[in-house]
Amino acid sequence: MTLHLDDLRVRQLGECRYDSPFSEMLSTKQTSPHYVAEGDRVLLEDTVSMLAGHRLPSVQAPSFEAAGPRRKIYFDPANVTAGVVTCGGLCPGLNNVIRGLVQELAVHYQVKRILGFRNGLQGLTAEHRDDTVDLTPEGVRDIHHAGGTILGSSRGGQDADEMVDTLVLRGIDIMFVIGGDGGMRAATYLSNAIRARGLDIAVIGVPKTIDNDLPFTDQSFGFQSAFAKATDFIAAVAVEAAASPNGVGIVKLMGRHSGFIASYAALAANAADIVLIPEVPFALGGADGLLAHVERQVRAKGHVVIVLAEGAGQDLLEDYGLARATDASGNIKLGNIGELVKESITAHLTAVGLTPTMRYIDPSYAVRSIAANAYDSVYCLRLAHAAVHAAMAGRTEAAVARWRRRFVHVPLSLMTSRRNQVDPDGDLWMSVLETTCQPAEFGPARERERVRAGFC
Ligand SMILES: Nc1ncnc2c1ncn2[C@@H]1O[C@H](COP(=O)(O)OP(=O)(O)O)[C@@H](O)[C@H]1O
Ligand SMILES: O=P(O)(O)OC[C@H]1O[C@](O)(COP(=O)(O)O)[C@@H](O)[C@@H]1O
Ligand SMILES: [Mg+2]
């Protein structure tokens, strides 16, 4: 899909008439390597060849609106009520984002009323709409030290019109939705319903997912904290495997459709011999299959360490007749590829006289329930600032994201238009192959979903 400049434009509720508390500070600022001035834009693409492919002058090339404070704002802060909700799976940094939103709204824009809706979008249903938390700078002062979300979260669908009724009844002018692909989709439906009723309510998304599977964002917040934690488990399994006869260490990590956590954690630990991700199908049997490679590794070095993403090899589980089920939000429930790999390796190595010592860890929720690390804490805070500036300036149906190091506004519809995945032809996967020395494919080259490397 080719993206044009118009696809990247963000909707604005109306003219900005009020002075921003940042007016004076902004008066002398200009674009630099470290700042994008108001009105300037950030290019979608960052190579000469991709840019040249558009055959357009750079001002007409696809670009995002830069995030950040404006000299004039749309909402009168004295009359604003803001709402915040966190939805989907947990992710390090959720509390940091909540705290950042509240502080920026209250301290700089002097917004007096900020409501936290509980337990995800469930909190916007008729049944739960009155059970909100009053969010104040004092109340959120220390929440960033803890993982999870003080507001709670959930999966499961809600009616968009019912949620809009809630916003109207609770007097919400600005709604911040902190969520993943599901949450961004829900925010889009919510925005559509708001627009259909002609209401003056801004919806701003803050993209969240430890899977890093959302597009148009360099990396999602919490991802770095999550893969750093995952690294500890790989290191532990590597020590165990190396110290055991025919040691086999396996770590199964989250990553429903995208193998970013597995790839980054494996690179960080630098101790894995094999990384398996959803984007690269693999075969178990055969001379080039996974089992033969595992056997070769065990014979050569006495042990082997495998990192696998939960979404890897799902086609193999289907061969075992596993039915495809979905969770309350419609996400595919995965089969347990870790168990299949573990059982298959045990059977294979035993059959060839290399009875293994199996060390299998599935850290699962331990990786995503932690507090944000220092890097993610900064990132979350800056995303929150950008979200508040966007909303106060009347931007709506948009998410804030960091794109090629700059903070930008991305139309919500784009956030759900594709999935960010590890590109088997890209340099991240090449680094994984360079580090593990595993073959590019296990088994005969299989048809794989092509990951889009560019946008045109
Ligand atoms: N297709 C959809 N239509 C409407 N709402 C959705 C849709 N997908 C997800 N949602 C809503 O978004 C929320 C979060 O989605 P989910 O997939 O569970 O997590 P995430 O936002 O982390 O991807 C769910 O509670 C659900 O209400
Ligand atoms: O057990 P749960 O809450 O359904 O979460 C499992 C899924 O949540 C994730 O951590 C992230 O998913 P979302 O970002 O879509 O919430 C996946 O890696 C994992 O498959
Ligand atoms: Mg999701």
Q: Tags for this entry?
A:
single chain; 456 residues; alpha/beta; Rossmann fold; 9-stranded mixed beta sheet; 4-stranded parallel beta sheet; 14 helices; elongated; disordered C terminus; binds adenosine-5'-diphosphate; binds 1,6-di-O-phosphono-beta-D-fructofuranose; binds magnesium ion
Description:
The protein is of the alpha/beta class. It folds into two domains: 41-220 and 372-415, Rossmann fold, CATH 3.40.50.450; 223-369 and 423-436, 3-Layer(aba) Sandwich (Rossmann fold), CATH 3.40.50.460. 33% of the residues lie in helices and 17% in strands. The chain contains 14 helices and 19 strands. The chain has helices at 23-26, 48-52, 94-108, 160-169, 181-196, 223-242, 260-269, 290-301, 314-319, 337-351, 365-368, 374-392, 412-415, 427-436, and strands at residues 11-12, 18-19, 41-43, 63-66, 72-73, 81-86, 113-117, 132-134, 174-179, 202-207, 247-253, 274-276, 303-309, 325-326, 332-333, 357-361, 395-396, 398-403, 406-411. The protein has a nine-stranded mixed sheet with strand order 3-4-19-18-10-9-6-7-8, with helices on both faces. Strands 12-13-11-16 form a four-stranded parallel sheet, sandwiched between helices. A hairpin with a 2-residue loop joins β18 (398-403) and β19 (406-411). It is elongated, with a radius of gyration of 24 Å. The protein starts with 10 loop residues before the first strand and ends in a 20-residue tail after the last helix. Residues 451-456 have low confidence and may be disordered. 1,6-di-O-phosphono-beta-D-fructofuranose (FBP) is lined by residues 88-89, 180, 182, 209-211, 254-256, 310, 327, 368. It is an enzyme of class 2 (transferase). This is ATP-dependent 6-phosphofructokinase.
